[in-house]
Amino acid sequence: MTTTHLDAPLHGALTAGTMLLAPDHLMLREGLVRDHAVLVQDGQFRDIGPEAQIAARHPQLTPVRLPGKVLMPGMIDAHHHLTQSFGKSLAYGEPSEIFRRVWVPLEASLDDEFVHGVSKLAALESLRGGFTTVCDAGTRAKGDIAALAAATQEAGLRCVLGLICNDGGNDSVADVRRGLKARAEQFMREWSGARLVHPSLAISVPEAASDEMLVAVSALCAEAGGIFQTHVNEHLASVERSVVQRGKRPLELLAHLGALGPQVLIAHGTLVTPSELNLLRQTDTAVSYNPVASQWKGNAVAPANLMAALGIRFGLGTDATRSDAFRLMDAAEAAQKLAFGLATGDASCGGGWTWLDHATHEGARAIGLGHLIGEIAVGKEADFLLVDVDTPELCTSVDLMWDLVRLGNRDQLDAVFVAGKLRLWKGWPTDWDARALMRQVSRMAGDAIARAPIQRLHPTAQKHREGVMAAEAVQ
């Protein structure tokens, strides 16, 4: 893909090492402001304020005027599975816990070349959807996780990258546990200085690890300044297995072991009791709220609005469903309205701004990067979006923040920047051939799905339709 998507003067301005950008609207932590400018230099935000003052402080720079645009923080996907994204359509119509029948056998069949290809494609999808950072919960693919890290860096996507440390439960042997701990320590050291890759440790679900490993991984992350990721209280079957095997619900087990804390990010948390909400609040444990996953394959919806009121940290996650940040925010609000708001007469369900906050700076806090990203602020990494709001849908807006949640669309993304570098223009990279990658991965994906021992319970839409039509014809 070449730079022909950009007109030459604008391309030069948006690819410079130093940029003084003057959009119609600038989205700061406290909301949208007009007549402001931002200085981007060396991949960071260096100065922000009223345009006249910024221009006076930097007279050597010519402001880049961006009429009809919102300059806003890049959005954060707080829960992803990059090596599963290519098989997302396998999840349609499936009952919960499809990881046992689909994801585990599918990922186990992937080699390093395919992991690199599908991860880079997933990274492109994320960038196209307005995500500048994803939090990957770990892959079960064989081989070196460096293939996944290389893919995200090549695409220009910031990634919190989880290394899975499952030891199999309390029946695991000491040698296995020692080996996993050594590998985890090496992984955290190896990636500690990378700009776009932030190391993390993961255990798929608490039942997949011994008590010793759960405690060790959580402690290692606390010591190293990383986050410990695990799927907790997502499905009824998993909760019940934990009660049978360990005598406690998954979240209760982690609390009992002392494995919760500000270094922990639990995925989903859809089935949480009042006392478990208190555990999250008291330990400052974070949550990824994944509303599209609840719509597609979940047992419940996490009480995210209540979590916000209680001060529980959480971000919004896709769970490798669809990488569209605007649709994710809309789903976050809609799921709260349908699951909780209708019953209580809550017509607001967050008022729009709640979901923007948790897609940006609150999401950054949830994944352990609040000091680095998530807002347009001096000293933060310049991960940001240029959103076209000069559209028929938004030109008459009287509440632009809420309209971005309900009406925003990834087609409005003119530009996506990560660490101050232009990564996409009008949905496509400017410095590598995305369509060639698409063709390559499409060929490889069909082979991978065909050879993996996947057990899919629901037919494709076409097969389902044919079955329904056949039954109606008999009747």
Automatic annotation (TrEMBL):
Keyword Chloroplast appears in the UniProt entry: no
Keyword NAD listed: no
Coiled-coil features, chain-numbered ranges: none
Family: Belongs to the metallo-dependent hydrolases superfamily. ATZ/TRZ family.
Name of the protein this chain belongs to: Amidohydrolase family protein
Record InterPro entries: Amidohydro-rel, Metal-dep_hydrolase_composite, Metal_Hydrolase, MTA/SAH_deaminase
Alphabetical UniProt keywords: Hydrolase
Signal peptide start and end residues: none
Organism of derivation: Variovorax robiniae
Amidohydrolase-related domain residues: 70-422
